[in-house]
Amino acid sequence: MPRATRYPVPATQNRVEDRIHNSRFIATLAPAASADAARALVDAVRAEFPDATHHCFAFVAGPPGSSSDIGSGDDGEPGGTAGRPMLNVLLNSGVGDVAVVVTRYFGGVKLGKGGLVRAYSGAVQHALREAATVMRVERIAVRVRFAYPHTDSVRRALAREDAAITGERFGDEVELDVQLPEDRLDAIRQLLLDLTAGGARLERAQ
Questions:
Q1: Shortest CA distance to 187 belongs to which of 166, 206, 163, 205?
Q2: Of 135, 163, 194, the domain-final residue
Q3: 128 - beta bridge partners?
Q4: Is 88 in contact with 121 (CB distance < 8 Å)?
Q5: Rounded to two decimals, what is the model's pTM?
Q6: How far apart are alpha carbons 148 and 96 in whole angstroms?
């Protein structure tokens, strides 16, 4: 299966709360492109709610559904009733680079294993429903060379393709350093060839 190069991620941190049999379940969901970022979220939530009964967590650092960098924890809840169900929701959410902490204040009524699974899963689902997302686009650095008469048309084409020019040099020809969406590399290469009658050269930057 090819690696995803364009996928939704949380735009910012958000928080929701559910109450079930007097227990409070506070879900804090945030972007997390690495395990370290996920752990930082857990530490921040623990510091914010130091008197809570549990801080269960899950994260998927990478494209939606990717299992190469994931983690979860039950933080004292019965094994398999919190972290893993939360992780399953994230893995099937279609959102990547995401972490969530569900903070519980025990309300005096035991929910049982099934009730805990539903409560923690539901808290994550609630947070995902309320979360705004943005598209993460994997980019690569390339160098584009072409003759001077094509400068304006090449610049306009790159702008339309969401490619950012990060450097430029003018010698015998124009040379641009460009950051472009990885999944558009072949299409942009062909576009530039068409615009320059085959004269453009595009190569990955070293």
A1: 163
A2: 135
A3: none
A4: yes
A5: 0.78
A6: 42
pLDDT at 108 (0 to 100): 86
pLDDT at 107: 87
- Number of domains the chain is built from: 2
Domain, as residue range, for 176 = 138-204
Residue 107 lies in a domain: yes
Confidence at residue 2, expressed as pLDDT on a 0 to 100 scale = 54
CATH number of 173's domain: 3.30.70.240
Model confidence pLDDT, tens digit, residues 118-144 = 999 999 999 999 999 999 988 999 999
Residues 195 and 161 occupy one common structural domain: yes
SS3 101: strand
HSE of 201 in the Cβ direction (CA atoms, 13 Å)?
7
- CA 13 to chain CA centroid, nearest Å: 12
pLDDT at 1 over 70: no
